[in-house]
Specification:
Two copies of one chain form a homodimer. By secondary structure, chain A is an alpha/beta fold. Chain A contains 14 helices and 17 strands. In chain A, 33% of the residues lie in helices and 24% in strands. In chain A, β1, α1 and β2 form a beta-alpha-beta unit. At the A-B interface, α1, α5, β12 and α11 of A face α1, α5, β12 and α11 of B.
Amino acid sequence: MNRTINIGLFGFGTVGQGVYRVIEQSKNAHARICKICVRNINKPRTIELPAGVLTDRVEDILDNPDINLVVEVVDDANAAYRIVTSALKRRIPIVSGSKAMIAPNLPELIELQEKYDTALLYDASSCGSIPVIRNLEEYYDNDLLLEVKGILNGSSNYILSRVFDHNDDYGSALAMAQKLGFAESDPTFDISGLDSLFKLVIITIHALGVYVAPDDIFTYGISTIHNADIRYAREKGMKIKLVAQVVKVSDSKFTMFVMPEFVSPSRYIYSVDNEYNGVVIRGECYDRQFMFGKGAGGLPTASSILSDIMARRYNYRYEYKKRKYIDRPTYTTDVGLRVYIHFESTDITTQLPLVKIHEIYRSEDNGSYIIADINLSDLIANKEIISAPDVFIANIPRFFLDRDD
Amino acid sequence: MNRTINIGLFGFGTVGQGVYRVIEQSKNAHARICKICVRNINKPRTIELPAGVLTDRVEDILDNPDINLVVEVVDDANAAYRIVTSALKRRIPIVSGSKAMIAPNLPELIELQEKYDTALLYDASSCGSIPVIRNLEEYYDNDLLLEVKGILNGSSNYILSRVFDHNDDYGSALAMAQKLGFAESDPTFDISGLDSLFKLVIITIHALGVYVAPDDIFTYGISTIHNADIRYAREKGMKIKLVAQVVKVSDSKFTMFVMPEFVSPSRYIYSVDNEYNGVVIRGECYDRQFMFGKGAGGLPTASSILSDIMARRYNYRYEYKKRKYIDRPTYTTDVGLRVYIHFESTDITTQLPLVKIHEIYRSEDNGSYIIADINLSDLIANKEIISAPDVFIANIPRFFLDRDD
C-alpha cells in the first residue's frame, strides 16, 4: 500500500525537530508533516517552517481529515496520554515515544487499539534507535525466549562510565551528563531507574506477553552510590552498571527488576559505555543476541520513529502475539538474590531479613558493606530502609542464574 | 490469522534436526512437521520419528494439499534450487537457509514470488540467529542507511580467533574448526570468502534495494595468510578478520567486497570472536547499530528458521521495498583502497597497478610486504596474480571512509 503518510506532529523539541529533519532527509519515506502542534507557537525556532504548519490547537491535527498518522513526542506524560487516547478513539494510528506515558497505561492502550481497530507504535520508547520492541514482537515471536537484560538508560550509563572509565566523582559526572543533554527532562527520572523501569515494562509485554505494573517491580537507582562502592568494584576488576532485566526463573515463572549490578569484563554489557544502550536477548537454541546502539538523543530517537512511520505505510501494527500464548509465565518476586550492600549509620544487618551473610566488612571511615543473600520480595518490602542516603545496593548476578552475558 | 502451519521439510541434517527440535520445543508455534524428505530414507537417525513422516519422494511434500509451508535446509544448492522454484511455482510459501542457492538466483526468485504471489523467506541464510535481513527489510526501511559491515562467516572467524587469541598456527586452527563442525560442508567455501560473499549479496538487496551478482564482487579469503602477516598485525595491536561490507561511497554510488581487514580494538567487530558473527549497520541519524550472535550451528540457524515459519502465520513476506526507491545508488568498483600486501616470489610492486606505495619491507626469510593504494577494480582485474599462494592482501579500512566501527 503506497499512499503518502500525512503526519500531524505533536511536540517540536529535540526529538520533534529530529523527526522533521529525518523525514526531510528520507526521500523515500513518502511522508510529509502537515501540522505541528506546540505549546507556545511564538517561541523562536531554529528550523524554518512553511506558513500554517505550526499550531497550538490540538484539533488542527486530531480533527484534520487529511492527516492519517499522528506522531507524538511531547515531553509531558499527561499531555501525551490525552493526545494518544484521543487519536486512538478517532481511529487515527499514532506513533509515540513516551515511555513514561505508555508503561503505566499499556493495558488500556492495547484495549483501545483493539476496540477502535487502529495502531499505536512506540519502538522509540525503548532504547532509542535499537529495534528491541519490533524484534521481540516479530522476530523472537516464539517461546524460546528466556531473558532480556540490558542497559536501557543512556544518562545514568554515561554517569557511571565517567566514574569508572574517567575517574570522575559521581557529582561532576552527573553535572557533565546534564550539561551534554543526555538526561531526560528530569535527571532523577534517569538516575532513580524509573526510565529503565518504564522501558522494561514495555519490553516485557513484547518479550513474554505479560504486563506487570511499574509499581510492582523493584527499582533501585544509582543516586546513593559511594566512592567506596566504586573502589570496591574496581578492586574486583568490575564495573557497576544500572541494569534492567526480565528473566524466566522456571518454565512457569519469571522475575524482573531494575538495579545496579556488578558487571565483569566477560559480559557483553560491560563494554556498553557512555550514552549507549545495549540489550542481551537470551533464548533456548539461539543462546544470546546482543544489540548495541544509541539509546537516546534527538536523531537516533527520530530514526526509530521514522521506522514506525514507514511501517504504517504497510499498515503494520503490534499484534501482541505472546499475550495469546497458552500458559504464559507468571510474575514472581519470590527469588533469591545475592547482593552487595553498602551502609553507614543504617545497620542493615539487623534491619533487613537477610537469608545469609557471606562477607561483612566494617569501617568507620569507608563505611561498611556486606555480601548477603536476600529475597527480592524483601527488598521491595524494605524499600524505605535501603533508600537511606547512606545505603547502596548492587546485584551480584551469577547467583540466581549461572550465566556469563 | 491463526491457522496451523503444516510443514513439509526438505533435509534432515544438523539444521533439519534443529528445526524439528525447535518446533517441538515451541508450544506456541502452532506448527507441525508433516513430512520430511531425505535423500536416503534408510539412514539410521538419532531422532525417533512417527511412522510415515520420512519420505524420499519430493512429490509427497510438493503435491500434498495439507502442507501449507515448505522448509528447505538441504545441503546441495542445485537440489535446493529445484525445491524452491518448484514450491514457488505451486504457490507454496517456502523458507530456505541456502545462501549458496539464493544469492546467485535472487532476481529470478523475486520474480517467481511476484509472478505466483507467494513468499520465500530466508533470514537464516545470513548470520544464522542474527535477524539481519528482517531488520534491513522492515526496520531500516528508509534511505538513511550508509553501510552494512560485518563478520558473516563463523568458520573462518573461528580459525582467525584461534590464530590471534590462542596463537595456533593457521593449519591446526583450520583442522580444529573442521573437527568442531563449524565449517560448511566444504571448508574452502568458508575460507575463500564465498560464504560471506553470498550473505553479502543477500544483505545488499535488503539494505540498498540493489542486486549485484556474486561474480562481479571482489572476494578474497584467508587461505594464504602467513605467520608474518599475523605477526605484523599483532605488532600493530590489531587483529585480521574476514570482513564483508557494502558501503555508500557517495549519495549515488556504493561499493561492496569481501576481504581480510586489519581491525583495531576500537571497532565493534574486534570483539567478535570464535564462531560468532557480528554486523554493524551504520546510517545517518542513528549512527551505528551493532548486532552480535551465533551465526552458525544447527539450533541457532533453526531458531531463525522458526522466526520465518511463525511470520508466515501472519502471511509475512519480503516486499523488497527498497527496490522501488527512487534514485537507488549504483554499484561501483572504482574505489581507492589502502591495502597491506604480503608477497614472496611474486613481485607485486611491478605486477600490480599500484597508485602509490606508502611503505615497503623486503626480507628473504619473512617474505616482503607493502602498504599501498590500489583501485578496487584493479584488484578484481588482477585476481589471478594476488591469488598466488605467496601473496596475501588485507584491507586497511580507515582510508576510503574515515570511520571507527
